[in-house]
Design goal:
- The protein is an alpha/beta fold.
- The protein has eleven helices and ten strands.
- The strands form two sheets. The chain has a seven-stranded mixed beta sheet, sandwiched between helices. A three-stranded antiparallel beta sheet has the order 2-4-3, with no helix packed on it.
- Helix 5 packs parallel to helix 11 and helix 8 packs parallel to helix 9.
- The longest helix is centred in the first third of the chain and has 21 residues.
- The N terminus is likely disordered.
Length: 340
């Protein structure tokens, strides 16, 4: 795993330079998230228009993805949730005790992002890390060679899909999912890993049979995305195969070599009129197989009563059994770290 050319900080500098680290992660001096009071009126009309244009783009692309699938007749809307001061406060509350764990995992991960050894040196430089004795004869003072910076972008991109079905409201699953999403988001920010976080639900109305909520998107990163995550709610039914297809297609289009798509869910797929049982399971399995051939790796984090069904759908090798919800955030972040 190698850092992008735009980044010239080593892992030690990221954590030794407090100001750089705090600015990147949005954390205060005590490690807690910092935020400013939401003021929608301060957003310029130009920024609002760019947000609307981006939402239209997401809708257009999502509908194109499903146009040749069994979901082509499903009425779909992609939302770009806003946030308010209450969401900011909830984010700070859920972060308590979580960020030190995330920072520690990131601290251990960051060295893998550095290009420690390079045989590619640019010669004839006035300064550098390697002295070229044979260049002294030219008397032009260009006696040094300098290691070329890495040109590769980070080789991992992460997609996180959150099931927002009504059953997520039971047994503390929703808050556990939010804490896990926060942990993944902040970890990816610290490690500069592109991140896509979408939630979904089905059957909100007859005119909106499938709802996608774009909380964070690597095509339009925003420091305030962390507060949008607090809009994750338990809503209605779930049409898993459709959500996975839309997100997997986004990952396929990314330039990163390793494409990881994680689904957080508490139950088996079920949506009107007949998206349930073997029909829905077959669709999910076919979607997983199709996009695995295109390079996407799937993982399922099961946090509900249908763990056996979810395991059967995804397969044991793609299944993460979350029995202890309190350990869920750290367990999920460590799982992502394995793919670096």
């Amino acid at each position: 795993m190698k850092k992008s050319a735009e980044s010239d900080e080593s892992s030690s500098r990221v954590f030794d330079d407090d100001s750089t680290h705090m600015e990147r992660s949005g954390l205060g001096e005590d490690g807690s998230p910092k935020y400013h009071q939401a003021n929608p009126e301060s957003i310029s009309e130009e920024a609002k228009q760019k947000e609307r244009d981006f939402r239209k783009k997401l809708n257009r692309e999502a509908r194109e993805v499903i146009s040749d699938s069994i979901h082509k007749k499903v009425k779909l809307i992609v939302h770009r949730p806003d946030y308010d001061e209450e969401n900011q406060q909830e984010y700070v509350r859920l972060c308590q005790g979580l960020m030190p764990i995330v920072q520690e995992i990131a601290r251990k991960t960051l060295p893998y992002l550095e290009q420690e050894i390079s045989s590619d040196f640019a010669r004839n430089r006035y300064y550098g890390s390697k002295f070229q004795a044979d260049s002294v004869a030219y008397r032009d003072y260009k006696y040094f060679a300098k290691k070329r910076p890495p040109t590769e972008s980070p080789s991992l991109v992460v997609g996180l899909r959150v099931d927002e079905s009504a059953s997520m409201s039971a047994y503390g699953r929703l808050e556990a999912a939010k804490r896990a999403v926060i942990a993944v988001y902040e970890y990816c920010q610290l490690c500069q890993i592109p991140i896509l976080i979408y939630g979904d639900t089905a059957d909100v109305s007859r005119l909106e049979q499938m709802s996608i909520f774009a909380y964070a998107d690597f095509d339009k990163p925003d420091a305030n995305d962390r507060f949008r995550l607090m809009r994750i709610h338990a809503r209605s039914n779930n049409r898993d195969g459709m959500a996975l297809r839309i997100m997997a297609e986004r990952l396929v289009a990314s330039s990163q070599k390793t494409k990881l798509l994680i689904s957080i869910s508490d139950g088996q797929p079920k949506a009107m009129d007949d998206y349930t049982g073997s029909y829905a399971v077959t669709d999910m399995k076919q979607t997983i197989q199709e996009y695995e051939r295109k390079g996407v790796t799937f993982l399922a984090a099961a946090i509900g009563q249908d763990k056996d069904v979810i395991s059967e759908i995804y397969g044991n090798e793609r299944f993460l059994d979350i029995t202890n919800l309190h350990e869920f955030p750290a367990k999920l972040v460590r799982m992502i770290a394995r793919y670096l």
